[in-house]
Design brief:
It holds the Pfam family TPR_8. This is Tetratricopeptide repeat protein. Keywords: TPR repeat. The chain has about 220 residues and is mainly α. The protein has 2 domains: about 90 residues, Tetratricopeptide repeat domain (Serine Threonine Protein Phosphatase 5, Tetratricopeptide repeat), CATH 1.25.40.10; about 90 residues, Alpha Horseshoe (Serine Threonine Protein Phosphatase 5, Tetratricopeptide repeat), CATH 1.25.40. About 75% of the residues lie in helices and about 0% in strands. α3 packs antiparallel against α4. It is elongated, with a radius of gyration of 23 Å.
Length: about 220
């Protein structure tokens, strides 16, 4: 009886030790939660990389495959699987801007726009000429504004959007976001001005309900 209790206690202690040293569900966190992985997780990574090396001539090719899969699941609203694929891409080669863009978009959708800004900034550093990143950061600032009602956040969004326009003055999404930012600031004149520009360049970037509300002002 004593031996049996000792065995149960030992197994419970081992289970606790294992849990403490193998953080769970890190594959649904950006960059695996930036935690120290346990031996078993490191072995799993090694096996995954070896498998990718068998199927692809270069790890960059394998990374692109995982990124493609990540976006596929993202647009299917399967954000957990999407995050797992972006993490695998990061493990293969952490130098692609799309990985961090994916991280940021998923985190923002899950209601953590402040955390998302970090990953959008990382994407910008790797690809500073992509104007769509400024749409993403402006959306994150707008999300935070809706929670905190701090107009400084909208001014930050506007600055980012203006930077994006310098990179690509024909990006309709930037004008659309500028319109909504000024709308939240109760600057209806500027909001209407930028909505007109957005319509000229990309009518699909405009929310029909928002346009109806703005037209009524």
């Amino acid at each position: 009886m004593t031996t049996k209790l000792f065995t149960i206690g030992f197994l419970a202690l081992f289970s606790l030790f294992y849990t403490q040293n193998c953080p769970e569900k890190i594959n649904i966190l950006p960059m695996y939660g930036e935690v120290t992985k346990c031996k078993e997780q490191l072995e799993s990574d090694k096996e995954f990389l070896a498998e990718m090396d068998r199927f692809f001539p270069k790890r960059r090719d394998a990374m692109q495959d995982r990124i493609k899969s990540g976006w596929k699941y993202f647009y299917e609203n399967d954000f957990e699987t999407s995050m797992k694929r972006f993490n695998q891409a990061w493990l293969l080669n952490p130098e692609s801007y799309e990985i961090y863009w994916g991280f940021g978009n998923i985190i923002a959708i899950k209601g953590k726009p402040k955390d998302a800004l970090k990953y959008f900034d990382m994407a910008k550093k790797l690809n500073p000429t992509n104007s769509d990143f400024y749409v993403s950061t402006a959306l994150a600032y707008s999300q935070i504004f809706l929670e905190e009602k701090n107009s400084k956040l909208l001014n930050s969004a506007i600055k980012d959007l203006e930077k994006g326009l310098k990179l690509n003055p024909k990006n309709g999404k930037l004008y659309s976001m500028l319109s909504t930012s000024y709308f939240y600031l109760n600057n209806i004149k500027e909001a209407k001005k930028y909505l007109v520009e957005a319509e000229k360049l990309d009518s699909s970037s405009i929310n029909k309900e928002y346009k109806r509300i703005l037209d009524s002002k």
